[in-house]
């Protein structure tokens, strides 16, 4: 599969692992006061950047306890109950690792740091102290079922029933998390302390404005909104088999807060993208993040320069759908970023690139990525991805690192060049032998080379040097040359 990469006239990669995927919540906010359209927020900062739940929560530079803020009781409960992931302690590595999605694992860690109900941790060992908050909340609530995430509503939710009375009430609730713009559309109220107030359009705009600052600031945080439905529909009134109806169940929500997750870019990605550009490779980033956050990340990793105008080079999934087919194709030819996309967009982008005779290398790790991985000339699955993605791909990226793809391109070009060198050598050597034998036979002269001598020339004189040529190191400028044409022959007219 590596040898296919240098065949492209122009290779277009959809980059999957540009960040470390080691997510941690570093900032969050909730409402402090709301009086009409006038409001103020409480903005918290959280320390600790690993999956081990060790860190503190600060408000205006002062360390605080999560149990002192009633809204954080509900926020911590949502983090635990609206979640299908966990953390696990790896005895061999002596470190905590995620089990499931990185985003959900970061919420689990946040809840443990918040400790919203003040669960004692003194005297507990390292492993036990990391899960006591979850155990405590799960004694208060029972998850009945999950309304799985879908791209149309950009959220997921869980239907939970109380096991015993608590400050959050004694009736079933629907805990929701998702993209801020999607969740806020369905919010009618906001949680302020132990009460809730109507959520006006002005308040929604303030939430989105602060969320935008988180997504485009110095840390480029990925934001999730957390909300609750205090009076959800009864389970027997829901059609749990039809995900298109989930949107109608997550209504009349109460906004609780927004969490901002730090997912820093890999250190080596910037240099790798520079090398791709020099090698004639165009990197297209396809992501589910919102447009502002995605553009900020792309500026940090070199897909866009700091001051570059992204007009015509960056599209959200909705903007892409609104374009006529001819414009969609043109957008694929020039764009470097597609945000808030659905799985169907990935396949469509690959199809448009192929229609322009481009060779595409597609990366992915989920079940939804499988069709695009299968359709692309080079499907590259992540080592941590699903079995479905791996089976649909031609290559598996064991370390989930985008820079490894660039290294594979360099190695592929080096192997291809070495193949051409030893084939040239063997052809030139064999032409001399063929001409010599042909002329002696045509002129009736004695044999110039007897069979044993021919074997010696082929096996020793030719074989060893040709083999050595196959191990030549890459040329120093190999990643500064444009890709060759896809239909170019292995051997040209002049060898």
TrEMBL record:
Catalytic reaction(s) noted: Ca(2+)(in) + ATP + H2O = Ca(2+)(out) + ADP + phosphate + H(+)
Localisation: Sarcoplasmic reticulum membrane
EC number(s) given by UniProt: 7.2.2.10
Top-rank taxon, per record: Eukaryota
Keyword Phosphoprotein set for record: yes
Keyword Ion transport: yes
MF (Gene Ontology): ATP binding; ATP hydrolysis activity; P-type calcium transporter activity
Membrane topology: Multi-pass membrane protein
UniProtKB keywords: ATP-binding, Calcium, Calcium transport, Ion transport, Magnesium, Membrane, Nucleotide-binding, Phosphoprotein, Sarcoplasmic reticulum, Translocase, Transmembrane, Transmembrane helix, Transport
Signal peptide, first to last residue: none
Domain Cation-transporting P-type ATPase C-terminal: 446-493
Chief localisation class: membrane
Protein name: Calcium-transporting ATPase sarcoplasmic/endoplasmic reticulum type
Organism: Cuerna arida
């Amino acid at each position: 599969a590596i040898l296919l990469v240098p065949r492209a006239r122009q290779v277009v990669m959809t980059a999957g692992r540009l960040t470390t995927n080691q997510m941690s919540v570093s900032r969050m906010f909730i409402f402090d006061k709301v009086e009409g359209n006038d409001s103020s927020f409480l903005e918290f900062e959280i320390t600790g950047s690993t999956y081990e739940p060790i860190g503190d929560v600060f408000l205006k530079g002062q360390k605080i306890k999560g149990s002192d803020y009633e809204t954080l009781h509900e926020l911590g409960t949502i983090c635990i109950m609206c979640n299908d992931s966990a953390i696990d302690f790896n005895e061999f590595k002596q470190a905590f690792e995620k089990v499931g999605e990185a985003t959900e694992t970061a919420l689990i860690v946040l809840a443990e740091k918040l400790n919203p109900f003040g669960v004692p941790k003194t005297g507990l060992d390292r492993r036990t102290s990391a899960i006591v908050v979850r155990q405590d909340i799960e004694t208060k609530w029972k998850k009945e079922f999950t309304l799985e995430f879908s791209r149309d509503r950009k959220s997921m939710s869980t239907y939970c029933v109380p096991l015993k009375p608590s400050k959050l009430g004694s009736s079933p609730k629907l805990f929701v998390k998702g993209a801020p713009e999607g969740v806020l559309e369905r919010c009618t109220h906001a949680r302020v302390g132990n009460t809730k107030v109507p959520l006006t359009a002005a308040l929604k705009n303030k939430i989105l404005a602060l969320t935008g600052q988180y997504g485009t600031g110095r840390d480029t945080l990925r934001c999730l909104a957390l909300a609750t439905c205090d009076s959800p529909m009864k389970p027997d009134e829901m059609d749990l088999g039809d995900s298109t109806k989930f949107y109608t169940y997550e209504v009349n929500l109460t906004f609780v807060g927004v969490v901002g997750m730090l997912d820093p870019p890999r250190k080596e990605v910037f240099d790798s993208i520079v090398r791709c550009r020099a090698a004639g490779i165009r990197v297209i980033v396809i992501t589910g993040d919102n447009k502002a956050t995605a553009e900020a990340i792309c500026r940090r990793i070199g897909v866009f320069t700091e001051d570059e105008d992204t007009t015509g080079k960056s599209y959200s999934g909705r903007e892409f759908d609104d374009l006529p087919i001819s414009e969609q194709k043109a957008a694929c030819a020039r764009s470097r970023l597609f945000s808030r996309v659905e799985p169907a967009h990935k396949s469509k982008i690959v199809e448009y690139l192929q229609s322009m005779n481009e060779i595409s290398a597609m990366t992915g790790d989920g079940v939804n990525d499988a069709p695009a991985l299968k359709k692309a000339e080079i499907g590259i699955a992540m080592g941590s991805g699903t079995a479905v993605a791996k089976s649909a791909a031609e290559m598996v990226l064991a370390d989930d690192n985008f820079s490894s793809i660039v290294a594979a391109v360099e190695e592929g070009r080096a192997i291809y060049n070495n193949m051409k060198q030893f084939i040239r050598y063997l052809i030139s050597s064999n032409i001399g032998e063929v001409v010599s034998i042909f002329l002696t036979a045509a002129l009736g002269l004695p044999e110039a080379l007897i069979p044993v001598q021919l074997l010696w020339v082929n096996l020793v004189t030719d074989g060893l040097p040709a083999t050595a040529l196959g191990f030549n190191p890459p040329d120093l400028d190999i990643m500064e040359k444009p890709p060759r044409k896809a239909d170019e022959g292995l051997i040209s007219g002049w060898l």
